[in-house]
Amino acid sequence: DQPRVSITAKLVANLISVAGADRVITMDLHAAQIQGFFDIPSDHLYASPVFMDVFKNRSEDLVVVSPDVGGIKLARSYARRLHANLVVIDKRRPKQNQAEVMNIIGDVEDKDILIVDDLIDTGGTFVSAIKALKEKGARKIFGSVTHALLSGEAIERIENSEITKLYVTDSIPLRGNIKSKKIVVKSAASLLAEAIRRTHNHESISSLFDTDKS
After folding, report:
1. Are residues 62 and 164 in the same domain?
2. What CA–CA distance (Å, rounded) separates 101 from 108?
3. Alpha-carbon distance values, 172 to 91, 119, 187 (Å)
4. For this structure, is 56 an active site residue?
5. Catalytic member of 10, 56, 73, 91
6. 5 located within any domain
7. Model pLDDT for residues 112-154, shown as the tens digit of each residue
């Protein structure tokens, strides 16, 4: 949502093409429009299969939460796979990396929560969502985030929050000095490897990024 972000993304896409790539595989793009910036074939994967084994046996009271309106599509895919209800947090951003929760659309009282997002940066927005959900009576809160930037004081914020566990992928290597009992890294290697194998063998990879299949 920031100025010139789209220009930078297009520049990176062009650089990848010029470098000689003939196909691109992406995973949980922050903005879906970025896929259209490439002049070469591109496939967009979703990381949800990486996390399914963690949450598929959760209680019937599990609710999937989108931390903002823009993440509804991603959260809905989790909700369908987990046969869970979907809740959306309506918020506004007075400035970058800060958000004020305006309303929680849906029932979270006495429910276990799974917050789904594509990335976490400083953790400010994420922790605000956790606090708001707790104030509405949520029980255990879990997080499922694809890209863990975890910049600034993000680790400290997560540790001091009421989240039970935050599951992230290894799409971005975590800093070596990060120590947190609440953050669990799940490898996306097998998902990406299978996508590469199918592409190399000219096989369909649609089942890997079809979020509506259970």
Report:
1. yes
2. 15
3. 27, 10, 10
4. no
5. 91
6. yes
7. 999 999 999 999 989 999 999 999 999 999 999 999 999 999 9
